[in-house]
Each structure stands twice: as C-alpha cells, then as structure tokens.
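Late entry, evening session. Most of the bench is empty. Finally got around to the prediction I had been postponing all week. Sequence below, unchanged from the version circulated by S.P.
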Amino acid sequence: MTESADDAITRFADVLNRQGFPFHYAALNTAGEFFETRKSRWFFQVAEFPVAVGGKDTRIDFILRKDKSPFLLCVECKRADPERKHWCFLKAPYVHRNCDYDRITADQLAFNPAGDWRIRAVELQGLSTLAKYHIGLQVRTRGPRGEKDREPGQPLAADEAVGQACKGANGLLEFLLNNPSCMGQYKGAVVVPAVFTTARLWTSEVSLKDADVFEGEVEKDACALNPSDFLIYQYHLPTGIKQTLSRDTGFRDLADALASQYIRSVPIVSAAGIGSFLRLFDPEVGNLTPIIPEQHRTFVE
C-alpha cells in the first residue's frame, strides 16, 4: 500500500468516526439484537427519516416502534467529544408550582371526538422508578483543572443532542398528522424523543436550594457523582423546535402551560445501557393520562 493511500485511509477512518456513523449503526444493531432475542419489545422502523418543524428540515437518526403498540421512539445518536465525555445531571428544586417530579411526559397524536386529529401532552404511567433530572452539565475528561468546559455561547453537548431529538420528534408528529395512514392499525401515535450516546453519564443528588446564597456556590463534598446507564432528562422545549399543531388553550396558569406545552421527558442512554433501557422502558397504552384534564381543555379552531 502506498503512503498516500495509507494516509487517505487514516484520514477517512478519523472523519468517519468523528461523524458518528459507526456509533449510530452499532447502536441500532444492539437494539435489533435485543428485539430478536426477545429481551426488548422495541423494533426497527426507519433510519435517517426526513422531517421538518418550524420551517427547518432535519433527519431522525432512527425510529423504533414498541411491538403491538403506537409508541414510537425517535433516537438521536451522539458520539461524545472524547475531551468532554462526562455528562452530569442533577435535579432542580423548583420547576413550577405543584410540580409532579415523577411525571414522564410525551406527545400523543389521537383522533378527537370532535372529528379530527389532535396532539396532546400525556403522562406515561408505570415508569416511576426511572430516575429523572432537570439540569445537565458537560465536564472535561482531559486538560488542566479549571480549563473552561466549553466556549462561551456554545450549547452543551447533552442539550444540543436533546434539542435535536425533540426537533425530530416534533417533525414526526407533523408528518404523521399529514400522513395518518403511516400510523397503520393503531389510529394514533405516542412519540418519545431519546438520545443514545457514547458519553459517560453521571447523576448527583446535590441540593441546589442549600447553596451559599452569598457566594452562589455549593460545597465540593455535596457534589458526589453516581454512574448511570440511562436517565430521564426533563427538557424545556424552545418554542422554535415545537410543533405548532397543538391547539390547547385551557391553561389554568403558567405552571399548567409549562407542564403541558413545554416540558418533555427525554431518555438519555449510554452505550452500555441501551439493552437495559429498551427492556425497562415499557409504557402501556392503557396508562396514558392527559396533562390537561378534558374538563379544562379548550381548542383554538
């Protein structure tokens, strides 16, 4: 092999790995193996599915469907920067008044008694044992202590990946609303965005409300980290990546609007946790509860 050919192969492998395609398809293969061996009920539907939301095009890395159900998992694969591979998550002590911290929220596309399709926020029941967090931080794995973990103005890798997953999920909702035949026999869909990543996931139970109010800091001893294979990230959707087809206006207050319209639960799954997540994340159709009760629900026509 010539030196130029060897150099091209080296550079090609480097670019290929940095683009994330190997992790994307290896993760999909892992999901397929767990379904084929009956360790999971999630099976492959499509890869690189194009959708649009807010006038912007994107592609969903791959979509899994739960067997014999309307649940769809829109997966964004994220190969973490080797120098920033620690993703750390913690809980917010305040989210909104009367917050249900155990709630897992997704979007359901369902046929409305009024005679048309509606998108509504629903709570996925039976998943209370899954750990839920509200804040994600990216921590360097290499470099001198005190070096900045990211450049000013750059999004955290976790938030960037979660935003992309949610953009794909919202685009899929719009696509299905315009192409209901793609829902097949289920006559509806529950769409859940998720992130599969090579990052190492950590969780902390540090109490932010007990921080020193004068210095705005917490003690190092309070910041213990625990490794995690997967977790639920309670993400607040930016309005620019949210589908515009929900027409609920029956909000009782700002807390109701935030909970029903903007907070969505996004599983973040490490490479090591793909199998266990797909086995344990097992919502059922009969356990869907609307975030806004029907007696409070109104619509804009």
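Two things to note before I forget:
Helices lie at 3-19, 21-36, 157-178, 254-262, 274-280.
Residues 294-301 have pLDDT under 50 and may be disordered.
Will write this up properly tomorrow.
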